[in-house]
Structure formats: C-alpha cells, structure tokens
From TrEMBL:
Listed GO MF terms: kinase activity; metal ion binding; phosphoenolpyruvate-protein phosphotransferase activity
Coiled-coil ranges from the UniProt annotation: 219-246
UniProt organism field: Umboniibacter marinipuniceus
Required cofactor(s): Mg(2+)
Keywords: Coiled coil, Cytoplasm, Kinase, Magnesium, Metal-binding, Phosphotransferase system, Sugar transport, Transferase, Transport
GAF domain span: 17-164
Protein name per Swiss-Prot or TrEMBL: phosphoenolpyruvate--protein phosphotransferase
Enzyme Commission code: 2.7.3.9
Listed GO CC annotations: cytoplasm
SMART domains: GAF
Length: 756
C-alpha cells in the first residue's frame, strides 16, 4: 500500500495539467482502495458551489457539468464540516442528494475528505462502494493522503480570481504560479528557457582506447569554458562591484587540477570517455551539495550543476544556438545561477524566474543589485513548451503569470505605465525633506549591502544608510575577508553618503544567512547561534570587523555601529567593551578617530522588554522589524505554509513597536526602524506617529513614503494611530489605515504594494 501511495504521489507531481492530475488521482485512489468509484469535486470561487471535475465509477458525461450548491448532498456536508465523513447506508442519510444521471444509487458506503489549502476548502474527494460496510482506517488514510497531494496541485487556484473551474485544466488558459518574491518590480516579456543540453545521467558509460585523445578534448573544452567565464565576468563588470564579479573566479578555480578538474582527468586516464568522466564527477559533487543540511551550501549545488553542464556543452557543442532572442527576455531555468545573467545583454532582461532556489541565493542577490524583477522557488511552473511564451513577472508578490487574459495584461501594462509616471513625478522630491504640512520632520535613510545600493539610495534622496548589512561582502566571498578588504568596502559606503551617517550592523550571519566557509549545523538555526552570539564567541572576528569599520571612517566621522540580536544586557556590555578596546588600540596605532555611536537592534522579544534599560546605555535603538515580527508571532516568514500568519499589522506587533518608541523617548534617545515595514507607506505613518523619527527602507519605496509624509499633517497621523487601538484583526486594521489615508487626501497610487 505504501508503495502504491508513493507511486501515486510521483505521478501527480509529474502531471502537466490539472485534468491529468485529477484523472491520475481518481484512477490511482480507486485502485488503491479497491473500491467501486472515486470522484473529485472542486469549489467554484466565491459561490462555493461544487463542480464534479473527475470521476471513475460514476458517469463521466457529467464531468465539469454537474454542480451542487454549497449545502447540497453529502459532498457539501464534507466541505461544510471541513473533516472526513465515513458512512454506511449513505442513501438513507438526511443529507443524501440523489442525482439520477450520476449512477450512484447502487453505492451504499461513502467516504469523503475535504481538500484543504491554507485553511480554505478547495474541494472534496469521495470514494464509494456497493457494500454496506463502512470504509476502514487504512482507506481513510489513503484518501487523506490523496487530498493533501491534490491540495498542493490546486494551490495556485487560490490566486485566480473569478476563474471558471471548467477552464483550470486547459493549459492554454491563464495560469498564475506562486514563488518567492526575490527582487521587486514588474517584468513583461517572452520566456527564454535556459535548459542544459543533457542531464548528467543521460551521458552513457563509455570506455575508450585512446585516453590521450580524450584528455586533449577535455583540456580544449576546459580552456573554452575558462574563456567563457572570463567573458561573462567582463560583461557584468560595469553592473557589479569587484567582490560580486569575483564569483566567476571561484567557478574557474573549481576546475583546477587540485579540485574537480583533477578528478575528471583521473577518470579519463582510467580509460573512460571525457563526457562520461565529466558527468559522473559533477553528478557526485552535486549530490553531496544537495544533501547538505546547510541552506547556503545546498544553494551552491545549482552553481556546481551549471558549471558541469557548461563543460559538457563544450565537450559536445550544440548546433542549435539561439539566433533571434525576443526584445524583452524573461530568463527561466530550473536552477538559475549567477552565470546566466551574463548570457544576454542585461538591458534586454525583463525578469528572472527560477523553479529552485531562494531569495538568499547568489543570483537573487545580484538581481536585486541590478534591479531585475525576480521570482525564485516557483516549483509548480512547467518548463515544457514554455520557451517563447509571454510571461508577466510580479516581483512584488512572487507571481508568474502565463497566458494572461487581455484584461490582466492590460492591468499590468497600466501598472507599469503608472509606476513609470509616478517614478518621474517622485523624482522632483529627491532634494526635498520628508516634512509634514504642519512642520514635523522624518529622516528617511536606505538599507544597503552592495556597492550599487548606495548609488541607488543617493539617486532617490536618502539621507544616509540606516542599515548597512556587513554580512553581504562576507556571503559573496569564499573566505573571511581580511581587515584591509573590509575597510576598503566599508569606506566606499561611508564616502558615498558623507557627511550623512552610515549605520553599520556588525556581522549578522546564521539563520537564513550562512557562510559556506563557516558551517553552522543546527536543528533550528533561527533560534540558535547567530548574530551577536557568534561575534562574542569569536571576538577575533568581531574585533577585526570593528577595527575595519573605524579605520574606514577616518576623516569622515559618519560611522555608527549597530549590534544585532541583542537579548541581554550582558551581551551589550561585552560588545561595547570590545568596541572600546578596538578604538583604544587604533588610537595607540596613530589613527585619529572618534568613538562611534553604539546602538542596539531590537529584533527579539527580550529586547523589547529591555528597551528601557538598553536606551539608558546605548546611543540609539533601531527596530529590526523583519525578525521581530517573526519571533513575536512564532512564524518562519520564508515558509509558504504559514506565510499568512506573518502579519506586520498584528496588534501585538504594533504594541511592541510603541513600547520601544516610548522607552527611547523617555531617555531622550533616537529610535529608528529598518525592515520591510518601513517600506509600507501606511505603516510608516503609524511609526512616525508613535515617535519614530528615523526610518531605513529600500530605495524603491523611499520616494513613495516621502510623498505620503509630505501630503499628510502630523496631527492626522496621530488621530489615525489613536483609532487603530480599537482593532483586533490585522487585516481590518491594514484596510482601515489605507482608507483613512485616502480619505484625508493621500494619492491611492502611493499606497500600492511596494514590498511583500
């Protein structure tokens, strides 16, 4: 039975259309349960009517034609109760609804289970047989498993509004696929599927009589690949800084004799063909990376796979190279990697889509730096026949839309046009302050991490960097950067903003930001060894970084240092002592540097309740809203299963934010917030009214937030904040804030979603 279930799950995963998946399930479940009939009913949008979509054992002529009301029949009862119902003598039950043409009058036993996704009933799966005996527990287990599997297949239907269920199975109709929003923006273009010419496993095992000839072919392919990597690096030099382009040097070194290249040579010398030797060696390395527990290292498996496929392509070059590419390309691949960005002129790249990977992968980091809308982890997207089709990529929400209906295409074209017009209008605000009509001032700064971030921030009028993520240079390297290297990178940021301040967060790795050369293996990395905990356990790393920051600030004096993940006064005390020690050492070495302000990130609940004490000691407080919300609500924001629980307008979140602002004000210390919450104009209004006078946000959102602040009197903001105290539900509170802003004269276009 277990084997049959596994086979069924695999077949459903391989289905290319909804119709195929439904047919696979009804046939597979009917056989596994050894019953007379299996049927699937799906809900039709907001009407909650249930449509018979597939059946084995009942009349197939009624598929996609027979519709039951929400309260009709045993099927409606299952949907209503949202739990399995197992009956014998079903025809005698008060909820039984007889449909003559269906042919179910001879079936006495009934077992139905709801198809649930994200707390909603998408449909019902039913098995029936003629025996009066009810189905047993094993039968229940099978249809519950089938129900869960079908829920995953149907998940994308959640985002299709007013879509006729009868059309869902037709591949030519509009499809909306959900992935991870990894780089914001809207991209419209034709799909260019980047597929390797062959899979490692497809390369046949072959012995050769002339290993020397194979070695010559291999070395020739190796030379060509090295040249290709160099050209890719050159093509991206103007867009990326030296640390980011250095990634291609890492790829090249993997091919050295002391690394993968040497392993391939040894297999060739043992008498195997160059292609086979290459495929086997790379397949083994990909398997090792894929099976690693560390998320960052698993991401590197895509890089290793891409390198191997490129080498195979040079060993057996394709004769079908692309000649005519669309003017606007949406690059799509099973596993996008950084080298893909160099294959096409970046000005022609409308967007990126990867079936695998996360927003922490190298390609996502580079896409954000280049301003290319990107969706990662779009696992349900089918690559077959996708090439050349028009796609709309919504990088704000993580949606990929295939075969968009005319009205949807028109909507997104309008969004793009409106965004472009709004962007042009907002440029006029670049050199104007974020000041309310009644004279209250808000300082808007930028979140940065790459060299290009500072350029973008200055272009939109950012008044400094409220959060410089020092971990980004560490992530982009294959080793710890030296103190001198760090100092050079940090000085670029400090110079870019001088005399405006740059708040540098000390190394914040661990959790979802691992270093491949500094492995951290933990069952629960978000609650483990990360942030300041690592720095205090490795003072040599912390001291080196702090010295690099301070040496970079010499003659500029615009550096502030911020400590992440502080959860106790002991941690702050120890970190402060180390910073003072580093400063004294630098003074002894002849540097003329003042001690930077030392602040604390409030991002764990313990820090919220220590805010009054921390405010007495620290020069400033800064709320890290992304992590704080995650920890307050006990939800992994990268987990799609619970993403609906991650709610920044949750009353508990707003109460915590008010508590921190009050504690800072009591001690006369500045308080800021950095994170996605600051990019939401409505939330920015609430934060300003709470007492936050500094917000650090992404450069794309900054002009919108500034425009809203300039349109609304501060007194109105305080009124809106006071009215939110009566709300218990986050969704209602969010809607109320938006409606109040519009009612008081804020342009609705400024409130459209900027980040997820």
């Amino acid at each position: 039975m277990l084997q049959a279930l596994r086979k069924l799950v695999q077949q459903v995963n391989n289905a290319e259309t909804l119709d195929e998946a439904l047919r696979t399930i009804v046939e597979g479940v009917r056989a596994a349960v050894e019953t007379d009939a299996c049927s699937i009913w799906l809900r039709d949008g907001d009407s909650h009517q249930l449509t018979l979509m597939a059946t084995e054992g009942l009349s197939r002529e009624l598929e996609k034609k027979l519709v039951l009301d929400a309260d009709q029949g045993l099927v409606g009862w299952v949907a209503e109760r949202e739990e399995p119902i197992n009956l014998s003598g079903a025809a005698n039950h008060p909820r039984y609804h007889f449909v003559k043409a269906l042919g179910e009058e001879s079936f006495d036993a009934f077992l139905g289970a709801p198809i649930m996704h994200a707390g909603k009933v998408l449909g019902v799966i039913v098995v029936q047989h003629r025996s009066r005996k009810a189905f047993d527990e094993e039968d229940e287990s099978i249809i519950i498993t089938a129900s869960a599997q079908l829920a995953g297949v149907l998940a994308y239907a959640e985002v299709v509004e007013n879509e006729d269920l009868q059309r869902l199975g037709e591949p030519s109709k509009e499809r909306i696929y959900k992935g991870l929003a990894s780089a914001s923006g809207i991209g419209v273009g034709r799909a260019v599927v980047l597929s390797s010419q062959k899979d490692f496993r497809s390369v046949p095992k072959r012995k050769v009589s002339d290993p020397d000839a194979e070695l010559a072919a291999f070395n020739g392919a190796l030379t060509e690949l090295r040249t290709e990597l160099e050209q890719l690096a050159v093509s991206l030099e103007e867009e990326l800084n030296r640390e980011e382009v250095a990634l291609f040097d890492v790829y090249a070194r993997m091919l050295d004799d002391q690394a993968i290249g040497g392993e391939i040579v040894r297999r060739i010398e043992a008498g195997y063909a160059a292609e086979y030797a290459t495929a086997r060696v790379f397949e083994g390395h990909v398997r090792v990376f894929t099976n690693m527990d560390d998320e960052y290292l698993r991401e590197r498996s895509a890089d290793v796979r891409d390198l191997g496929m490129r080498l195979l392509a040079h060993l057996a070059p394709s004769v079908s190279e692309r000649k005519d590419l669309p003017e606007r390309c949406v690059l799509v691949a099973r596993s996008l990697v950084a080298t893909h960005l160099g294959q096409i002129d970046h000005k022609r790249i409308a967007a990126l889509v990867s079936l695998k990977g996360s927003s922490n992968s190298h390609v996502a980091i580079l896409a954000r730096a280049m301003g290319i809308p990107t969706v990662m982890g779009c696992e349900e997207l089918q690559l077959k026949d996708l090439d050349g089709q028009e796609l709309i990529i919504d990088g704000y929400r993580g949606h990929v839309i295939l075969n968009a209906k005319p009205q949807i295409r028109e909507h997104y074209n309008e969004v793009v046009a409106q965004a472009a017009q709004l962007t042009n209008e907002l440029r006029a605000l670049k050199n104007l302050p974020a000041r309310t009509p009644d004279g209250k001032r808000l300082i808007l700064m930028a979140n940065t991490g790459l060299a290009t971030d500072a350029i973008q921030a200055k272009e939109v009028g950012a008044e400094g960097a409220g959060l410089y993520r020092t971990e980004i240079p560490f992530i982009l390297k294959e080793r710890f950067p030296s103190e001198r290297e760090q100092s050079r990178i940090y000085r670029q940021q400090l110079i870019a903003f001088a005399p405006q301040p740059v708040t540098m967060r000390t190394l914040d790795v661990g959790g979802d930001k691992p270093l491949n050369y500094f492995p951290i293996e933990e069952d629960n990395p978000f609650l483990g060894w990360r942030g300041i905990r690592i720095s205090l356990d490795h003072p040599e790393i912390f001291l080196g970084q702090v010295r690099a920051m301070m040496s970079a600030s010499e003659g500029l004096d615009n550096l502030k240092i911020m400590l992440p993940m502080i959860a106790s006064m002991q941690e702050f005390d120890r970190a402060e002592q180390l910073i003072i020690r580093a400063h004294e050492e630098m003074l002894a070495d002849g540097y003329d540097i003042k001690l930077p302000d030392i602040g604390v990130m409030i991002e764990v609940p313990a820090a919220v309740y220590l805010a009054d004490r921390l405010a007495k000691r620290a020069a400033f407080l800064s709320v890290g809203s992304n992590d704080l919300i995650q920890y307050l609500l006990a939800v992994d924001r990268n987990n799609e299963r619970v993403s609906n629980v991650y709610e920044s307008y949750h009353p508990a979140v707003l109460n915590a934010l008010q508590h921190v602002a009050t504690a800072a004000a009591k001690e006369g210390k500045p308080v800021s917030l950095c994170g996605e919450l600051a990019s939401d104009p409505g939330a920015a209004v609430l934060l300003f009214a709470m007492g936050y006078r500094y917000l650090s946000l992404n450069s794309y959102a900054l002009p919108r937030v500034k425009a809203v602040i300039r349109q609304l009197p501060f007194a109105d903001m305080q009124e809106i904040l006071a009215l939110t105290a009566d709300f218990d539900r986050a969704s209602e509170l969010r809607s109320f804030v938006a409606s109040e802003l519009i009612k008081r004269g804020v342009d609705p276009l400024l409130l459209s979603r900027v980040t997820d």
